[in-house]
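User: Could you go from structure to sequence for me? I need the amino acid at each position, not a summary. Structure tokens:
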């Protein structure tokens, strides 16, 4: 019986709260605006960041879990590098052969790339007659690179050891580079192109490369890959080599890192008291770096959303205090006919909660719409609206209604019924 009575009181309080909101729609809308903005911001950002995380982590993991990279400094760093680090000596390409003979190594290869790292785009042009592919990334690799990374050749073939030994003027073009020079219908295989004043024969065309951000042109598809020996002949002045290692198994990665470090220290002639003047890292370093960046982005946007929620909460308290003042006589009448303090308290507290919760629901709808609309612009980005953040957004908005509605509700419940009835 008590349960039914309590449920009836609760339904009545909700009905009164909704009736109050219906009587003042504009005021209610302006009151919940801050909550709408806060919840929608948090939900939209969480959806976009979640999609970016999936793409970036998927792209990095596609590199393989048993890859080790050796360079003069780590790529997975934030901020400017010190002058001492920038002045480190280059890796030597012949060290790849020594690394390939380490106990737990399946393959090793040196790589040389000419491009603008800050833009991720190339600096070279590839010509075919009057047609020119601009901003092409120029990359030199030995055939063993195919044992380390899964180079998917859509047409033709990759280099052979014969090409490497004879410095053959052959090239494998990226998907977009080949499309620019030959169009979608002409077969590039066996055709000649002009690369930095020298004639190279196209022996292969790469498949499209997966990219982490968006669905526009991927700079990695605008590339020309040469045998490393041919690259050295074309650019003898460039010695910015990277050494790639593939462990025999993912469980041996830590062993390979230790073995490679010991080998490179010997090649660098570093004494035991000197620190490494090179960096050895794995794709996990890029995942950790991205998580740090995306975490920072989310914290900033969460802070912005929290400020909007705080403003919305203050708005709820303010409007509830105004509502209590406007309905002083109504409170007096309700108390005169038998309403208890807890009835008045529940009425105004539920009104604040309903007000904030409606703002939360509207914010979730807007945030979800904004997050999912990103897919229309970037179809390749797997934006996902998380059920966790939908529930969290609703709970937070309801909690704001409770926190900022307690004082106005308590003030209404404490009113003297006689004084309330006299109020004009």
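Assistant: Here is the amino acid at each position, in order:
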């Amino acid at each position: 019986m008590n349960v039914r009575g309590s449920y009836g009181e609760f339904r009545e309080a909700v009905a009164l709260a909704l009736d109050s909101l219906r009587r003042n729609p504009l005021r209610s809308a302006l009151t919940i605006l801050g909550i709408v903005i806060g919840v929608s911001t948090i939900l939209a950002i969480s959806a976009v960041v979640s999609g970016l995380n999936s793409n970036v982590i998927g792209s990095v993991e596609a590199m393989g879990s048993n890859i080790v990279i050796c360079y003069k400094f780590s790529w997975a760093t934030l901020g400017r590098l010190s002058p001492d680090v920038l002045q480190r000596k280059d890796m030597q390409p012949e060290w790849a052969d020594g690394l390939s003979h380490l106990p737990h190594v399946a393959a090793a290869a040196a790589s040389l790339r000419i491009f603008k790292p800050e833009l991720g785009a190339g600096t070279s042009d590839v010509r075919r007659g009057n047609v020119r592919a601009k901003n092409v990334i120029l990359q030199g690799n030995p055939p063993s690179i195919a044992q380390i990374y899964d180079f998917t050749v859509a047409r033709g073939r990759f280099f052979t050891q014969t090409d490497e030994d004879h410095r053959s003027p052959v090239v494998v073009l990226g998907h977009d580079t080949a499309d620019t020079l030959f169009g979608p219908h002409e077969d590039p295989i066996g055709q000649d192109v002009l690369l930095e004043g020298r004639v190279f024969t196209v022996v292969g065309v790469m498949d499209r490369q997966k990219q982490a951000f968006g669905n526009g042109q991927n700079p990695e598809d605008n590339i020309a890959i040469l045998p490393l020996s041919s690259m050295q002949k074309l650019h003898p002045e460039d010695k910015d080599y990277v050494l790639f290692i593939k462990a025999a198994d993912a469980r041996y990665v830590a062993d390979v890192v230790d073995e490679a470090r010991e080998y490179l220290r010997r090649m660098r002639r570093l004494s035991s008291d000197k620190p490494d003047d090179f960096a050895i890292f794995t794709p996990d370093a890029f995942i950790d770096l991205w998580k740090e960046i995306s975490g920072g982005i989310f914290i900033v946007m969460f802070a912005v959303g929290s400020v909007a929620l705080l403003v919305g909460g203050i708005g709820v308290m303010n409007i509830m205090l105004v509502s209590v003042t406007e309905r002083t006589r109504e409170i007096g009448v309700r108390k005169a006919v038998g309403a208890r303090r807890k009835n008045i308290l529940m009425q105004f507290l539920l009104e604040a909660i309903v007000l904030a919760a409606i703002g939360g629901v509207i914010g979730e709808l807007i945030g979800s719409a904004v997050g999912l609309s990103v897919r229309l612009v970037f179809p390749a980005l797997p934006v996902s609206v998380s059920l966790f953040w939908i529930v969290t957004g609703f709970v937070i908005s309801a909690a704001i209604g409770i926190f900022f509605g307690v004082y106005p509700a308590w003030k209404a419940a404490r009113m003297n019924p006689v004084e309330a009835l006299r109020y004009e």
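One structural detail worth keeping in mind: The mean pLDDT is 83.
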